[in-house]
Each structure stands twice: as structure tokens, then as C-alpha cells.
Amino acid sequence: MVADSQAIQTRQLSKVYPGFFKSQQVPALTDLNLRVDQGQIFGLLGPNGSGKTTTIKLLLGLINPTSGDALVMGQPAGDQETRRRIGYLPEESYLYRFLNARQTLDFYARLFNMNRAQRRRAVDYYLDFVGLDPSVRGRRIGTYSKGQTRRVALAQALLNNPDLIIMDEPTSGLDPVGMLEIKNMIMRLREAGKTVVLSSHQLADVEDVCDRLVILYRGRIELEGALRDLLEKKDVFQLSARNVSEALQAKLSEVAAEGGATEVQTGRARVRLEDLFKELVARKRSGESR
Amino acid sequence: MFGLLQHIGPKLAGSGIALGTVYHPPSQHHYVSIFADVVIGLLILAFVLTAFRDIARLGRGISRAWAIGRVTISEAWNARMWAVPLVWFAICALLGLLIVRGYEPSGVVRVYMTIFLRAQALILLMYLGIMACVTLPRERERHTLVTTGSKPISRLELLLGKVMGLSAAGVLMLAVMMILTWGYMKVVDLKIRHDAQVLYAMQKKSYDNVLRRMPPDTGVKYISEHGVLQAQNYVTGKLSIAGYINYQTNPPSRLLKGGSSEVLYFEFPSLPATEYYRPMFDFQFQVVHALPSTKPVKIDVTLVQRSNPMNTQESTLTLNPAGQAIWMPKNPTSFFSYVNPQTGQMYNPGPVVVKVTCPEFGVYLGFGNGLRPPSDTACLAVSLDTSRTPHHSGMIAPKPNPVITGFKDNGKQEIVGPSIHHPQIKPEVASWDFKNLDQQQIPIGPNGNFTLHMVISVDKQSNEALPPVAQIVAYNTDTPRVRTTLSTYVNEKRITTIKLPSTLLGAGDLIVNLRSEVPGHWFKVKDDSMIIMQPPSSFIWNLFKSEMVILCEIVLIITIGVTASTAVGWPVAMLTAMVAYILGNLFHFVQSLFQSGGLELFDYVQDNRMKHIWYYKIGSFITNVMVHMLWVTVHLMPDFTRYNPLYFIIRSKDMPFEIVVLDMIWTLGCILPTLAIGYLLLRKQELA
Fold first, then answer.
1. Which of B64, B142, B150 sits opposite A110 (nearest CB)?
2. How far, in Å, CA of B278 to CA of B387, rounded?
3. Which of A173, B424, B641, B678 is the most buried (most CB within 10 A)?
4. Which CATH superfamily hosts domain A6-232?
5. B140-190 pLDDT, tens per residue?
């Protein structure tokens, strides 16, 4: 039984995409054991083809596992009632091009059995929330820019005020301002106690917002842990301070702990996530080539 | 499809009614039907067992399904759904204008309705059938199913949503088409009424100025006042050619007219099956000579096995002076019994019909109701050797009131008028038997009369210049001596109205007899030629019911299309839906092929020696399997021949609402197992 504090738990979750011949079968995910606590922002990283999207689709019940099982909010993945508490932003904005933004959100709101007043309120609120220009809301989505479409897709993921939000490349297609807004929004979601699973290639975004992450490679977990632990340089001590005088700077190396500097911060030196990711992938690839 | 459902409700004429009246020996047909029912039953059981959670949630799930349906309508709208009715209307209006010229007013409605409704059904079946086949595959291709599938919606709701959405699109289009049809027909009706007004005024003027012998046509007047856009409710009687009727007897006795095309049919519903007895047919007629003659009277008799109309025996018999003759058919074993080759069991081959004609001109053969002619003995009976058939009495009588048919011309029966050269030869009489009349439904005029409407064609063999005149004799079977006799001019191919006293509407049957009074004038008649009108229903209500029948057909093809597309891509789904539709339309054809032995041609061998060759046996086995698979497949398909939206409206007749209701129930009955297949295919399918 999954603990109440866990939003997601998978056990030996595997997925093999079938082929007519055995040689055509594609193992996408192998024995995935994943644990995401509630209230966390969880990063799902990996190069292309590592199984991130497959994992998400398995968690949503859109595809069936070959073996193993997954629990989402304490229920088997794909459970209809559990999906009421989940918001999903797909990798691409898969929306009906012939509907406008309002009609799109109204449609998805209907799938949550919202009444007319609730739907109207939710549609207006989330279109404002994602910052979609009011002048384009009545236009068909087929005429939108990629960024505008992305905002509508984001709004549909949040429409039901979900407890668990699964985002696949949320900033894809957004300009820098939009990216920043998304990051701020994710932080606000954490403050509201929501669980966010984030799959992204924008490592800087993940680094800024995630609490924990896994890095997948060829369908297996290669690295897992709290972001803070993963990015720490264990053998390097780092000290930083403000209002440090010239003299103090000279003494700091000798008597940092005894000095009279204000706001002294000490800690392990950190490596950038991008460097960590690159190093891991390079190491795996060099290992494979040998 | 669905053997059980085949029994729901009445079918329309021309859709297999004849099959019900023909005896068929026990065959594999029965087992195929049971097999189909078992398959459908198992499907529904599997559906209920696997989908019970989704079914339980359908209460709130219907609104989610409807949300899917709304998007499907938007998709259809985006696919230029709105243009379909406009294109349809343009084509039909053009076709109507090109084809309709020269038709008389009642024919105009028939032609327009045939064009408009047939085109509607065809276009909508194609358009919505294609949409049904592409809607799910297109969602898969565009990945919109990924986003939708992440929401709390079940596969059943998804499936239902697609069917509901496309059905709603069908309703919208049908509504637009119905309004356009009605508007167009209203304009046509205005023109017809105007033309009728002008024509009636001309006829009246000519009649008033003694330029015309016949009074103005009441049918034209009726059209000028009421138009042609009505759905008529009327009661018809069962037509039989009565031969010559002698009203002096009680009840009036009937006489077969010698030297005419009249055929007298006696039917024995059941004769005992045995290979030992030899039935003896004992005829007795009352012979009446209209012309001086001393020759013995001959009759031609034919024995027909109704289960196999090709199995006949014919003979010519000579009646003795008392009008009696006895006939013993040959080979009674092969004719009066059917032996199942597999079980060796002997069956009754079903009804046997005896047809009698008299070639002697100027002779009448009296038979009354077939049971008690004036001689007070049976007109025809089969006597059996009771020592060999101990379980049966010595004499078996045929069904009472044997039927007479006249000469048939293009589906109508013709009755011969008075003879120019032999005035003593009586004209033939057509008789309509109005059974179970609901007197509340028959409008009675202020003079205590009700109106009989008559539409007949006149075949003028001679006296072309004379207007046709008919003699009508009406009586109630409770009071056969109280008769109303009148003569009237006949409006050829148009309505002739006849006023009859309402006292004829007693508890018994109303009998209306018609004969021509002008020598050389023959009448062509059918069941609908003599009708009692009831208050008409509105045309638009009748049109609505026809549209409902089309809708049922469309919803069924949509369900089949959506179901097919759950498992395969849209091209294969289209092929599947098309094959289902074609096989559904061939149900009776394939069934009749089996029953008449048409498909056994596959087994036809010129040289019986081949039957022992191994490759012939293998080929024969494979052919047999394929043929039976075809039969089973046809049984598993919905019977699309059931839908006939045109049958009533082109006859300007009100469609009974029960037909619409039964079609809807039947459609729902077909949709359920189809949806079950769709659900079972989609249940574990990956949406991404």
C-alpha cells in the first residue's frame, strides 16, 4: 500500500512497444521504481528516447504497462476517478484546431462535470492565469502562435485545480518572458501544496524549481535524488559573504569562522545541472561505445 | 443480424412478406439463426461483465459523452457539414425540375419525395458514414486523444460520445433538409392548387355551357381546395374478384365465369402426411348456362404445393350433369409428404392449393363461400381412406371463401365489363371486403352518408367515346338483403367519390362490389382502388416520420463506422462499414438463395464420377464452408432492408407511428451489440 504522502509510486514498471517480429520490439522502460512525494516538484530528465514520455503516459493510463504497476494518488494508474485530481500538459499542445480557446477549455471543463457557472468562472480564470491575450480568445486555435497554443494547453492542465500536475516540456514554444512566468507559476503551485512532475530539456528551468529528480537513460534510472544533494560538490567547501572589506578578505581564508563579517554563508560548492546531465550522458555513451 | 430482432414488428410490403407464407422444411437456417443469436448474446454478456463499472457511471458520464459529442459536431461543422444540405437541395431541386414535367398532381408528390428522400438517405449515409469511420482515427493521428484521454472519461463514454455527436449532426442536417423539403413542396403545392383551380373553373364553365357531358371533376376540386400535401389516412378492403354475384340468394352466391381469366383458388392448410393414402378431390359446382348449350362442362384443375410452387399437377375434368367431378392426383407420396433425407422423418409439406378455371364461355360455376353451394354439399373436399389414416376424418374441407383472381395487368387485376355480342353474359365483379371498421374513425356527413373514394383505371376495349360508368352495390354481411345500388361516372385515374348511407356500417363486414356498366369497358383495380377516407394528417408530420426512419438508418451506420474504426484505420473501417451495409441489404437475397437452392450451384457437378475424387471433395468442402460463412455473416449483420422511409409518403399515406417506434427499438437493439463490440475492442486499447 502506498503511503498517503506519496503522489506516485511505481514498482518494476516496464514497457515494451510491440513489433511484428521480436527484433522489432522496442523496450522503452525497464523496471522503473519511482517515488514522488506529495507537495514536491519532481524532475524527470533524460535524453530523447530515455522513456520520460512513456513513463508519463503509463502514469496517466494512456498506455498499458508490459509488466509492473504504478500507483497514482494511491490508486492504480489510469483510474477514472483519480484522473479528476490530475492535470496533464502534453509535450506538444494536442488541442482541437477548430475550437477557440474558450470552447476548448469549456469542453475540458465539461469532462470534469462542471456546471455552467463553474465552467465560465474556470475558463476566464485560467485563461487570465496563463496570460492569454483576451483579443485572441475567440479565434480558432488553428490560427494561434505556438506560444499562445501552449498557454491554452497549460490552462487545460490546470482547469480542474489538480493535486498532481504532470508537465511534459512546459516551456516548449514560449518566449523567455513566458518561460519565466511558467517557472513562477510552478513555484506558486508548490506553495499551494500541489505536486508537480516536470519533464523537460530546459535544464536551467528544472534546476531552478525542482526538489527532486531522476535522470533516465534507455528506460532505466541512472540518477535519482534530491536536487540539492545531486548538485553538491562533496569535496569542495564554499563560503560567500557580503560587505567584506579588503582586509577581511585577506583574513577570511585564515579565520573565516572567527571573523566579524555579516551574512556569512558557507556550504558545498555546486555544479550546474546542465554540466551534471552532460557528464552523465557522455559517460553512458562512452561506456556504450566501448 | 440478430435473429431475435428479426421478429420485431411488422415489415413493410416487399421486404420478405412472401417468405412468411411459404412452408420451408426444417433446415440449417434455423441453426444459423440460433447461432447468430448466441453470438450476439455472448457479446452483450461480455460487454455487461466487462463494462459494468463504466455502465454504472453512465449517469454522470452521459454529460461527458455529450461533451465529446459536441466537439464531434464542431468537427463535422468544420468539415463543411453545413454545405451538405445545400448541395443536396440544389441537386434535388434541379433533378425535380428536369424530371417532374408532365406528371399529374398526385404523381408530382411521389416523384419529388422519391428524389428528395432517397438523395437525403444516400448523401447522409455516405457523409456521416465516412465521418464515423474517420473521427477516431483522426483523433489518434492528431494526438488529441492523448489530452482527452488524460481526463476522467471512460472508453464507453468516448465511444458513446462519438456516436451521439455524429447522430446529432445527422439530426441537424435532417432537420434542415426536412424544412427545405417542406418549403419546396409547399411552393409546388401552391402551383398545383392554382392549376387545379383554373382547370376546375374551365370544366365547370364547359359543363354549364353544355359543352361537356361529364360534371366537373370532384378530384380536381378537392386538389384546388386542399392541395396535394396531405398524408391520407384511409381504410382499404381486401379485394377479390367475386366473379358474377347472384344477389337473389342469401347470402349472395358467387359464380366463376367460364371462358374468362378468372381463377378460383381453394387452399387446404394441411393435409396429413403419409405415403399410404391416396386423396380424392371431390368437386361439386352449381352449373348455370347463360348461353344455350348441351355440351358437358369441363374444368381445368391444377394442384400446387405452396412450399415448392414448381411441384404441380394438372388435369382437365368433365363435370357430370349434377356439376360433380372426382380427381385422384398421381404420385401422392411425392406430392403430399416431404421426407427429410438425413433423419428419414416424414413431414407435412404444408399448404396445398387447388386452382380451378373453366374454359367454357357462357357457363357459370356457382360455389358460394366454397362450403355450401345451393346443393348443400361441399363444393370441394378431399376424401381419405379412413382405414389408412385413422387419425383423420373421412373428409377434409378447404378454407372457406375461396379467392378468385382475374387477369393481372401490371399488378392490377382487370374485371371484364358487359359483352357487346352476348349481353346475357354478366360482367365480372370486383369485391372489397372492409373488415373490422372502426365507425368512430369514419366521418359521417350531414345527410347521414359516408364517402367512399374510388380510383380505378379504365381499359376501353370498345365504345371509346362513351364515358365509363360503374355500378356499385354495397351491403353489410349482417344484413345482406339490405343493399345500396347506384351508378356513377368514373373519373379515370382520379378520385371518384361515392356517398353511401351510414346504415351500411354495421357490426359485420362492409362489402362493396363494383362492375362496369358500359359494354367493352374493363376496369383495372387493386386493394387501394376503393377506400374510405379518414381525416388527413399533416404532410409535415408524415415527412417527419419518414425522416425518423432515415435517422434510424443513419445512426446504425454511424455506430458501425465508429465501432469499426476503434480497431482499424479509417480506410479499413470504411470498407467494413460498407460491407456491413451491403450485406445488411442482401439479407433476404442471400436467405432466398439458400432456400431456393441458388448457392448450391457451387456444388453443381456435370459428371458425378468427380464426386469421388479427393480434390473435388476438398474443393467442395471449402466451398461449403465459405458459403456457410457467408450465411452466418449475413445473419450477424443488421437487416437494412427494414428501413423504408418512402413507402408511405410517396403514396400520400400516413405512416403508422408504430412503424417508427418499432424501427427505433430495432435500431437500438442493433446498436447495443455493435457498441459492445466497439467497447470490447477499445477497452484495453492504448490511446497514445
1. B64
2. 12
3. B678
4. P-loop containing nucleotide triphosphate hydrolases (3.40.50.300)
5. 999 999 999 999 999 999 999 999 999 999 999 999 999 999 999 999 899
Q: Cβ contact (<8 Å) for A83 and B152?
A: yes
Name residues whose C-beta falls within 8 Å of residue B225's C-beta, 6 or more positions apart in sequence.
B193
Please check whether residues B363 and B381 belong to one and the same domain.
Answer: yes
Mean predicted confidence (pLDDT) in B514-543: 90
For chain B, the farthest-separated pair of C-alpha atoms sits apart, in whole angstroms, at: 98
Tens digits of per-residue pLDDT, B236-246? 888 888 888 88
Distance CA B680, CA B688 (A): 18
Contact B190, B94 (CB under 8 A): no
Q: What b/e string do you get for A30-40 counting C-beta neighbours within 10 Å, with b at 16 or more?
A: bebebbbebbb
B198 and B268 belong to one structural domain: no
Asked if residue B629 is part of any domain, the answer here is no
Window A:96-115, CB contacts with B under 8 Å:
96-99, 103, 107-108, 110-113
B343 and B216 share one domain: no
Q: Does A187 touch chain B (CB under 8 A)?
A: no
- In which domain, by residue range, is B355 found? 238-429
Task: Give yes or no: residues B282 and B401 share one domain.
Answer: yes
- B77, B147, B154: residue with CB nearest A90: B147
Q: What is the three-class DSSP state of B311? A: strand
pLDDT in tens, B361-405: 889 998 876 665 444 455 777 776 655 555 555 677 777 778 888
As for how many domains chain B has, the answer is: 2
* Same-domain check for residues B245 and B215: no
Quick one: B329 and B220 in the same domain? no
**Inside any domain, residue B569:** no
Rounded Cα distance between B625 and B458, Å, is: 55
State residue B336's pLDDT score: 75
Q: Which residues contact A95 (CB under 8 A, 6 or more apart)?
A: A104, A141, A149, A152, A153, A156, B144, B147
Residue A130, min C-alpha distance to chain B (Å) = 18
Does position B328 have pLDDT exceeding 50, yes or no? yes
Are residue B366 and residue B307 in the same domain, yes or no? Answer: yes
pTM: 0.76
| CB-nearest partner of B151 from A57, A83, A96 | A83
Q: Of B197, B230, B263, which residue constitutes the final position of a domain?
A: B230
Residue of chain A whose Cα is closest to the Cα of B687? A62
Alpha helix ranges (H) inside B209-238: 218-226
- Residue B641: all three cell numbers together: 432492408
- Interface contact A156-B147, CB threshold 8 A: yes
